[in-house]
């Protein structure tokens, strides 16, 4: 039940998927909102602190998720050959964009060599800093890759609905409930 | 890690001697970096080199009703020096000047405060640089205090003083007289705890 099976996802994969979905959409909304906060807004410092802290936790979760995805079997993919290829590329794109968004976000905050405080629990050290124009370039990458990620995630959700309602595949159901066989 | 231990030490140190006064304790806002440690030194008498130490931490205790009881502590990471010139920074950090490898931190611990007027006075204390500790005096000014927009209370100060580099084992004899001293300028906001 915890592990993946050829017929469906295990609970760990399901949990990782939905926690990531909620956290990443939340981070996008939070980020969108916080950049327009006025200097005198009570959330001016607090919102970015939440955004950085959550972002670092999701980055760690995503790395763990990738490891789990690679060491575990994946269920069979239904559909035509081209459709399966499209789905595969789409999922690789989602993983790539998630990493691009989170790594670029990390590079903004650490551009001057300062680590990132995560909820006051621990600090993620600055590993790469002082690249030319690092904060600005990482900032652009962060924004465009976040928009691309949200677009691709929207497409991903539409595809899941299409499989569920039009094709009558069980891909959506198996991401909701783990299978034991 | 260092930050945590230093702050804990600082908090512990701040509690002991001042517990009888109702002074408030402040942590210098290095997180939002409203704090600067800078210096200005002549370059051969032609112009000035301006530099900054970017990494430091500290705190102070301050009570407007009882300013004599004020105290300050700061610890500066010497290798965070920046003078806008990597090779010069490296040279200044070498044993020719600051010897940052052997003496990675510089500290200031106040020993007294003499008010000279409303929101100003002379801070005395011990400055340790390159392993040498000297008593110094620094005129300081309260720039402002009050509630900030994010739910904290802040107080901000500035102060400057002139240091003779020879007092700290920094041999400037190869350079003109004008370079034997530098002006140290410190300004920061503290967040009341």
From TrEMBL, chain A:
Location within or outside the cell: Cell membrane
Chain ranges of the Cytochrome b561 bacterial/Ni-hydrogenase domain: 9-176
Listed transmembrane segments: 12-34, 49-68, 89-108, 141-161
One Gene Ontology term of the molecular function aspect: electron transfer activity
Membrane topology, as annotated: Multi-pass membrane protein
Primary localisation category: membrane
Alphabetical UniProt keywords: Cell membrane, Electron transport, Heme, Iron, Membrane, Metal-binding, Transmembrane, Transmembrane helix, Transport
GO BP: respiratory electron transport chain
Record's keyword annotation contains Cell membrane: yes
Pfam families: Ni_hydr_CYTB
Cofactor(s) of this protein: heme b
GO cellular component annotations of the record: plasma membrane
Keyword Membrane: yes
Family: Belongs to the cytochrome b561 family.
Official protein name in the record: Cytochrome b
Organism classification: Bacteria, Pseudomonadati, Pseudomonadota, Gammaproteobacteria, Oceanospirillales
TrEMBL record, chain B:
Keyword Signal annotated: yes
Keywords from the UniProt entry: Signal
InterPro entries for the chain: Lipid/polyisoprenoid-bd_YceI, TTHA0802/YceI-like_sf
Signal peptide coordinates: 1-23
Coiled-coil parts of chain: none
Annotated ranges, domain Lipid/polyisoprenoid-binding YceI-like: 25-191
SUPFAM superfamilies the UniProt entry points to: YceI-like (SSF101874)
Alphabetized SMART domains for the sequence: YceI
Keyword Acetylation: no
NCBIfam families: PRK03757.1
PANTHER family the UniProt entry points to: PROTEIN YCEI (PTHR34406)
Name recorded for this polypeptide: UPF0312 protein
Organism: Bisbaumannia pacifica
């Amino acid at each position: 039940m915890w592990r993946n099976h050829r017929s469906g996802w295990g609970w760990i994969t399901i949990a990782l998927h939905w926690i990531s979905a909620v956290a990443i959409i939340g981070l996008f909304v939070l980020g969108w909102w916080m950049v327009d906060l006025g200097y005198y807004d009570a959330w001016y410092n607090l919102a970015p602190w939440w955004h950085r802290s959550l972002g670092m936790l999701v980055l760690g979760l995503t790395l763990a998720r990738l490891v789990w995805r690679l060491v575990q079997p994946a269920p069979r993919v239904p559909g035509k050959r081209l459709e399966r290829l499209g789905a595969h590329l789409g999922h690789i794109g989602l993983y790539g964009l998630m990493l691009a968004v989170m790594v670029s976000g990390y590079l903004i905050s650490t551009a001057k060599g300062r680590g990132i405080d995560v909820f006051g629990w621990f600090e993620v050290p600055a590993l790469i800093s002082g690249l030319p124009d690092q904060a600005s370039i990482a900032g652009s990458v962060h924004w465009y890759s976040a928009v691309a990620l949200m677009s691709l995630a929207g497409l991903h959700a539409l595809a899941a609905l299409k499989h569920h309602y039009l094709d009558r595949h069980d891909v959506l159901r198996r991401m909701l409930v783990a299978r034991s066989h | 890690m260092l930050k945590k231990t230093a702050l804990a030490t600082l908090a512990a140190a701040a509690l002991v001697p001042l517990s009888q006064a109702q002074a408030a304790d402040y942590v210098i806002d290095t997180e939002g970096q409203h704090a600067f440690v800078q210096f200005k030194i002549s370059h051969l008498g032609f112009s000035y080199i301006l530099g900054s130490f970017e990494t430091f931490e500290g705190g102070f205790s301050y009570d407007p009703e009882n300013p004599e009881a004020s105290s300050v502590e700061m610890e500066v990471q010497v290798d965070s020096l920046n003078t806008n010139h990597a090779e010069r920074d490296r040279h200044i950090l070498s044993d020719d000047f600051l010897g940052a490898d052997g003496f990675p931190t510089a500290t200031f611990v106040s020993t007294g405060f003499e008010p000279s007027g409303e929101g100003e006075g002379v801070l005395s204390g011990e400055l340790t640089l390159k392993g040498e500790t000297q008593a110094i005096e620094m005129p300081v000014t309260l720039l402002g205090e009050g509630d900030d927009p994010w739910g904290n209370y802040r107080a901000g100060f500035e102060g400057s003083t002139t240091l003779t580099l020879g007092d700290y084992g920094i041999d400037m004899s190869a350079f003109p007289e004008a370079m034997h001293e530098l002006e140290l300028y410190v300004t920061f906001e503290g967040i009341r705890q």
